Amino acid sequence: MVADTESVPAALGLLAEGFRGARALIVGGAGGIGAETTIQLRALGARVVIASRRGPEPAAVRPPAADGELAAIGVDLTRPESIRALAAWVERELGGLDILVNTAGVTRTVPLRAIEQLDDATIDEVMASNAAGVLRIIRDLTPALRRGQAPCVVNVSSVAARTGVGSNVAYVGAKAAMDAMTVALAKALAPEIRLVNVAPSALDTDFAKGRGPEFIARTIAATPLGRLATPREVANAVLAGARLLTMTTGSTIYVDGGRHL
Ligand SMILES: NC(=O)c1ccc[n+]([C@@H]2O[C@H](COP(=O)([O-])OP(=O)(O)OC[C@H]3O[C@@H](n4cnc5c(N)ncnc54)[C@H](OP(=O)(O)O)[C@@H]3O)[C@@H](O)[C@H]2O)c1
What we know:
The protein has about 260 residues and is α/β, with parallel strands linked by helices. It has a single domain, classed as Rossmann fold. It contains eight helices and seven strands. Strand 4, helix 4 and strand 5 form a beta-alpha-beta unit. The two termini are about 25 Å apart. The site of NADP nicotinamide-adenine-dinucleotide phosphate has 28 residues, from helix 2 and helix 4.
C-alpha cells in the first residue's frame, strides 16, 4: 500500500488543535481513567469540567476561564435531580458542550456463580451508575451538545459486556446496556452528535475492590497481549474517539489487548 503522506499531518492536527478551547465534561474525571483523560485534555488546551459525587454543589462552581483550565462539580448519577442540576449548570455557565466523557461508575466483586450473593442495593447502584445514569446525562445534555462544536460523547464501557465475564452479573448487564444504547443514540442523534464507546479490559485502578493477585494472573493469562491495560491507553482511545475518528459513531473500540477475541 502506498503511504498517504498528506494524512499524517492531518491526523496530528486533529489531535493537536481539535481540543483547543473545547468545552469538555468528564463524568468520573477524578477516577483512574478520568484523571489521565483530564491531564491529556488540559495539556491540549481543552476547558475541562470534572464531575463526580465528591465535587461541590453546582451553585458554587465557576466555569474554567481559559484554555487548559479545570473546574470540578458535583453530580450523583444515581439521582436524576442531580443530573438535571448539572445539565442546567452546563447550559448557564458553558452555553454548550463539545465533548462529554462518561467514565464514572461503581461495581463490587461478586463472583458470577455466587448470584445469590448479589444484593438489591448492589444491583440498583451498579445499574444506575453505569447505565441508567449515563442515559439520563446524555439525554439532559443533548441540547447543549447540539450547540457544541463537532460534539461527541465517549462512553467508557467494558470488555465484560462482550465476554460476559466481569465483576458481577449486574455490571456485565449495565455495560451491555450502555453498548446497546450507544448504538441507538448514535442513530438517533446523527448527524449532529457522534457517540463512541471505549471498552477496556481490567486495569490496575481502584475500580473493582477485592481483586487479588490471582485475578490479575488469570486476566493476564486470558489476554493475548499478556498484560493489563493502563489508564493512559484508555485515555488515548477516548481522545481518538472524540476528535480523530470523525467518521465513527455507534462503535465500540476495545482497549483490551485482545481479551475479547
Ligand atoms: N478499572 C478497570 O479495571 C476497568 C475495566 C473496564 C472498564 N472500566 C470502566 O472504566 C470506568 C472508570 O474506571 P476507573 O478505573 O477510572 O474507576 P475509578 O478510579 O473507580 O473512578 C470511577 C469514578 O466514578 C465516580 N463515580 C462513581 N459513582 C458515581 C456516581 N454515582 N455519580 C457520579 N460519579 C460517580 C467516582 O468519583 P466519586 O467517588 O467522587 O463519585 C470516580 O471518579 C468505569 O465506568 C468502569 O466501568 C474500568
